[in-house]
Amino acid sequence: MFHGIFLATFILALFTLVSASLYPTQPIQSTVYYAGETALTTWIDDGSFPLLSNMGDITIQLYTKSDIFLATLATNVDPLVQSYNLSIPRWLVYDGSNFTLRYLTDTPYNMTIYSADFTFVVRGDSIPNLPSPLGSFPSSTDGLVSSQAGLATVSEAENSGPTSIVIPPLLPSSVGGFNQPSGKSKNSAAGRLDTEKLKFRLVFILWPAVLGITLAL
Q1: Do 120 and 33 form a contact (C-beta atoms < 8 A)?
Q2: Beta carbons of 165 and 157 less than 8 angstroms apart
Q3: Domains of the chain by residue range
Q4: H or E, element range at 128
Q5: CATH architecture of 21-121
Q6: Cα 192 to chain center, whole Å?
Q7: What is d(CA 216, CA 101) in angstroms, rounded to the nearest whole number?
Q8: C-alpha span between 121 and 135 (Å, rounded)
């Protein structure tokens, strides 16, 4: 019986020791942190042994799914400050509600205190947005251009890095060798053609006829 009482007392004392006085108050089950932003964690001294004043510096680690280690977020944190701003890299977490914090210290003995499960939200898309198109189609007389200031010109493109250059559609009016006559040029060409025909008829048809009539008289 004596041994049973001693064993029960020992187990109760051990449980009291393991509980410690650091009690996390943030995060709790309803807490939502955002990836890429600071996350405030807080705790209190609940009066259990050892008190915060008797504890050494703590290390704060992030876990997911209860036992999958993700990162050490802070080291050498004085437990008496009772709060700490944690920096959460955007790439480290995902949308989920199965994250926990662990507070570890080895003074006065090795202890690990667990927070409640909480949620992370990743805002937006983690993939960087692609830039908008670098140019637009210019008019037919502008040639090869880029619409954004600071981009290399066509003559400098060979010496610079890859850039996007917009090539305008080839229009017959802007490409040499494909020029089509305008309305005025068409009319003037037709006029010249009619004049040449008239001269031909005068010289080779009308003039011989007039000459023949004259000789016949």
Answers
A1: yes
A2: yes
A3: 21-121, 131-172
A4: none
A5: Sandwich (2.60)
A6: 66
A7: 128
A8: 36
